[in-house]
Specification:
3 helices, 22% helix, homotetramer, alpha+beta, Thiol Ester Dehydrase, Chain A, 139 residues, seven-stranded antiparallel β-sheet
Chain lengths: 139, 139, 139, 139
């Protein structure tokens, strides 16, 4: 079983840095989101398709560990990995590292569930997602 | 003809300050938005009602003049004023000042137009808005 | 031993809501920050004093559980609680609930450590913080 | 006299879109900032060098005209142009257009001044900036 990953390079914006001259900790959730999106694009997991089919995938849990800061002008890389699981959940792991030194700076995780358009929890993986996992050798 | 105004006090958040230790200039558009909302609440201009009636009010122009900065922990006041005009536009003027010294820090302006739900421009003031203006002695 | 808490009411801003019409999940870290600040003000824990004494308190870990969303115009309350601990750490727990229904919407936690001005980890509680804890009956 | 420009491509992030499913208007100031930074990198105008020499370049004025919206997933291009001027000011003009259709979506302008590290206005162009302009054939 493969371990699907995506890598996204980014440059720290001036507006993302706080008065301690490091990236404000909440902005890492934007980077995670960028990572998830890059993952979807690279591995043909089309979220908009899911939305069109009537599914939402809200985040129900996230955690972040901050080891070293990013500063204005730094280039980071977001490594986004999908954790395969049987339950109707999408679990991503993230590792942000310095593009030059490859030092790990921040790690984290998000858990998403499936709901219908009204926000009602769906307990089984939608066919679309199940098929995608099969196609990718993940189930 | 009255000059309708609203006043909103706010405290600068840590996450709104940049590495120069002053509020990042783009965040003043959030304060303006807070001011507009307070104006609507105070003067019974119900934007959600407008949306329900099928109107959107996108911003088509904004300008800001930055005289003095706000810092983390500072308390500011947003003075929001409606400029009465005949055209189908909503024009607000803003003055942000220090709550303690009353020194003017930032001034600005936004212009909104009316569109239908598809974004098509509407050239006449919606009845709802026209009535509201009459009620407030603005037309 | 008392359990120190602070309560902060807030209104959801238009700019905090995403295209699903709920607060974008990353914005809850801003609310947590507002909660921490309110906690400090209410209980005389003066972060700026700490900075002046040469200490920084970077966040090294955070986690959030999202149960129910907040929407534009909703009023929420942030309950911020300090978890007393012997180690040189500041641990806060957060509960965000709807101001009207009192339904719990989001819970979470942040862990901060002490570093010197250069970011070097400090393994013992600074005297200033130790004294504050004693004063508050927390140690 | 050359007309210095820089072009920066970007993809709209999910977190930049508001509940109307278009980019929240304040986020265009982030795009402008990205454009300015790209301009500096491309044309060797090193802001950090300026800071090291003791100069800050705060924004004192900005204006934006919103013609058409950007949506989640859209790719835009920021065209950043320097307006040459004799006064001790940095004036940039921006045009954001759709990368595919090349339709102009948003235009705008920022004016920056020079101050010393304490925020005191400087009335003459710093030597560093004057030399840079000469080098680029701008004065």
């Amino acid at each position: 079983m493969k371990d699907l990953k995506a890598f996204t390079e980014f440059k720290v914006r001036f507006s993302e840095v706080d008065s301690m001259r490091v990236v404000w900790h909440g902005n890492y959730l934007k980077y995670f989101e960028d990572g998830r999106e890059a993952f979807g694009l690279q591995h043909d997991l089309d979220y908009l398709k899911l939305y069109d089919l009537g599914f939402l995938t809200p985040i129900v849990h996230t955690e972040l560990d901050f080891k070293w800061p990013l500063r204005y002008g730094d280039t980071g890389v977001i490594e986004t990995r999908l954790e395969s699981c049987l339950a109707a959940k999408i679990i991503h792991h993230y590792r942000i590292y310095n593009a030059h030194t490859e030092k790990t700076l921040v790690t984290g995780k998000t858990i998403q569930v499936f709901t219908d358009i009204k926000g009602q929890l769906i307990l089984n993986n939608p066919d679309f997602y199940q098929n995608w996992k099969k196609l990718k050798g993940l189930s």
